[in-house]
Specification:
Number of helices: 12
Helix content: 55-70%
Structural class: mainly alpha
Number of strands: 0
Distance between the termini: 53 Å
Radius of gyration: 18 Å
Shape: globular
Strand content: under 5%
């Protein structure tokens, strides 16, 4: 039988590329016993008070942890970047099953994201708010001249990407020059 600390080590690996690239702990969380889920939830909330780790937030969402809302709100309030604010707001929104304050925050913070890669990485989180105003903002990027921006905006909204893939292929460049 595993201790709570051993379970936590499996659920929250070190925060580096090698340990987290492609990592998902959802199957591990869902296979825990109810008793283990309660103990893990309590421990993760304690960890969140001292550790700014998005995977802890994601795991608490999988656990549907309403007890974590205070700690998640603290993380949201201490977040510096618009991207981080949207991320923490999305966790709160998901646990609450929808929250207008979090939707409004995400909508206003999205306008503060100017850097392309930050914007495309946040489309998925924004679409999870299931808010027509937010989806319209994302929709404004589906025909963006930048391939990665348009592609990620479309996938976040569940829109077919065939049109922009074909558009990109028609351009006269090599496949490895996708950033141009």
């Amino acid at each position: 039988m595993k201790t709570v600390e051993q379970i936590i080590e499996e659920l929250i690996p070190p925060s580096d590329y090698r340990h987290r690239k492609g990592f998902s702990n959802e199957h591990l969380v869902l296979n825990l016993t109810d008793k283990d889920k309660q103990e893990v939830e309590k421990r993760l909330i304690e960890m969140l008070d001292t550790k700014d780790d998005e995977l802890i937030g994601e795991t608490l969402v999988i656990l549907k942890s309403s007890d974590s809302l205070v700690s998640l709100s603290k993380r949201l309030n201490s977040a510096k970047s618009a991207t981080s604010k949207i991320l923490w707001a999305s966790y709160i929104n998901e646990i609450k099953g929808g929250d207008n304050e979090m939707k409004d925050l995400a909508l206003s913070e999205f306008d503060n994201i100017k850097e392309k890669y930050s914007r495309i990485s946040i489309f998925h989180y924004l679409s999870q708010f299931q808010d027509s105003r937010i989806n319209e903002k994302i929709r404004s990027y589906i025909d963006n001249p930048d391939y990665l921006t348009a592609y990620n905006a479309r996938t976040a909204l569940g829109i077919d990407t065939k049109e922009i893939v074909n558009r990109e292929r028609r351009k006269n460049k090599k496949w490895w020059e996708f950033w141009k």
